[in-house]
Amino acid sequence: MRTYRYFLLLFWVGQPYPTLSTPLSKRTSGFPAKKRALELSGNSKNELNRSKRSWMWNQFFLLEEYTGSDYQYVGKLHSDQDRGDGSLKYILSGDGAGDLFIINENTGDIQATKRLDREEKPVYILRAQAINRRTGRPVEPESEFIIKIHDINDNEPIFTKEVYTATVPEMSDVGTFVVQVTATDADDPTYGNSAKVVYSILQGQPYFSVESETGIIKTALLNMDRENREQYQVVIQAKDMGGQMGGLSGTTTVNITLTDVNDNPPRFPQSTYQFKTPESSPPGTPIGRIKASDADVGENAEIEYSITDGEGLDMFDVITDQETQEGIITIKKYSVDRHTDMDRIFNIDSGNGSIFTSKLLDRETLLWHNITVIATEINNPKQSSRVPLYIKVLDVNDNAPEFAEFYETFVCEKAKADQLIQTLRAVDKDDPYSGHQFSFSLAPEAASGSNFTIQDNKDNTAGILTRKNGYNRHEMSTYLLPVVISDNDYPVQSSTGTVTVRVCACDHHGNMQSCHAEALIHPTGLSTGALVAILLCIVILLVTVVLFAALRRQRKKEPLIISKEDIRDNIVSYNDEGGGEEDTQAFDIGTLRNPEAIEDNKLRRDIVPEALFLPRRTPTARDNTDVRDFINQRLKENDTDPTAPPYDSLATYAYEGTGSVADSLSSLESVTTDGDQDYDYLSDWGPRFKKLADMYGGVDSDKDS
After folding, report:
1. Which InterPro entries does this chain map to (predicted)?
2. What would the pLDDT profile of 345-378 be if each residue is shown by its tens digit?
3. Same domain, 424 and 370
4. The pTM of the whole model exceeds 0.70
């Protein structure tokens, strides 16, 4: 819904002498401000006086993209010299006057004839003047005013590129910068949110994300592997109005390629290769080709072949064919006798005889290495010679000094300050040219608050001295003293050893008597540990009594029948086969058929009864009781019986009635009677017994006849 604002521009005119009128330069936001006027009057035409009013100007605002059918109203020009008699004529000039903007020369109404676009021209500067129709002379001086086009959100954001192309290394961390996209909006950035652009991602999640304000695209997923997927197409949307509903939007496509990193090792298609070569093949003869494949691309897929181990390490060589990326295995000879170098520590260049190491050497493990070098003629392999080679490993400072032994000493409780309690010595596996020079010091974390000090004797020994008078073994029975030992070689090596100092009771000569901390005795005669133990025993005893009482109470309610098949909520099957109809000792089924044969004083046998209730004598069902009434009656009795099981159980009832309420209709019995019977009641039984009523009623009629 568009809202249009209309502004009124009034021209106030004094004397009809344009040279003497002065326009006001103040502009306001739409409506006339406080009116100021210059009047021209006098006794003659040549005498100048103040007039009532002069020109009054304001800045006009016009909404762009007007879609109405009529001309868009801008404002109104009016002079106080205009008396409505048509003597004045209003003239408009400047930007778009007569084309975009027209004025009614009689009324001074200004209208826009076309739809205006702020993005094409945001401001129009025009000039207005009122003249006398009869003389053609202006009644006010010409003055300038502005029509400013107000912006509406009629331009969607446009990206600087329709398609962006970017690359990012594979396996990059989350948040790695990929590329920045930019969209511009032609709307007025100073008015509202029409030009405020917010970026979002429409396609490309969860692999990438975009910052809403900057348009920077970043990685959003770990371990994106180029070998699994190389190309990604991301669609980014730019929406104005700050991303709110109703804003206009534009999209762009970003094609992102994962660049390769060397994260895949070369792999051989097979684990074993077999080649044959004549014994007389000269050195350099190729005997076979092998090729490995690499999932990487470019220079990351370039392969370099080498022989790392095996029996033919000294007899064969491999070179790389740069064009085919194949490894060419060739023959080489001039070798090290592996019987003298079982660990293959040394290798020799078959061409120039240079010897180099293939493993790290440790002087402390083995100082001398004795190997044999074999020299063989190329053209005649049978011609060879051997020469012994003795290699000495020189020392480097790669071992830290350490204590010569494990130190555990003691200090007397009555020791004085600066008393020597232990002398320390160190050893080092290295053998420096100038000899060993060790230094001793307390570790930094223990130097400030330690109860002991270290005195470096400058002769590769050090002494541990007490730092205070007296120690209490009941407060602290053992001290762990970290001592740093450093050498004076390059690079400096150091280690930290721990000296255990125990506080002991000593005699007056300083000899150790006891290093155990006896328990402190309170004046009451019991130590804290003893009191805690007594209280703990009392608590355990109380808990035991409570548990024992609870178990005895639970045992009273325990069922007599203890079986892995719980009879509650179950039907117990005994798997016993009866003796048939002739077996009358197993179970008396007559109880189920005759409710009068209920046993008295029969209690449950599966639990111990808490109280003895006399079983209630159930009334005998009358002879013509329906089976359903019988079962309902038994169910009600079990629900109210205090001796009934407290859980669900299965009760089976079988009852055979004693006959129907109606007497027999058989005619066989009727012949045994001496008197005549009256069957008229059959007619009262309804249409179903009409046939019988007719039959027996007819017999009586025959007898009467």
Report:
1. Cadherin, Cadherin-like_dom, Cadherin-like_sf, Cadherin_CS, Cadherin_Y-type_LIR, Catenin-bd_sf
2. 888 777 677 888 888 888 888 889 888 887 776 6
3. no
4. no
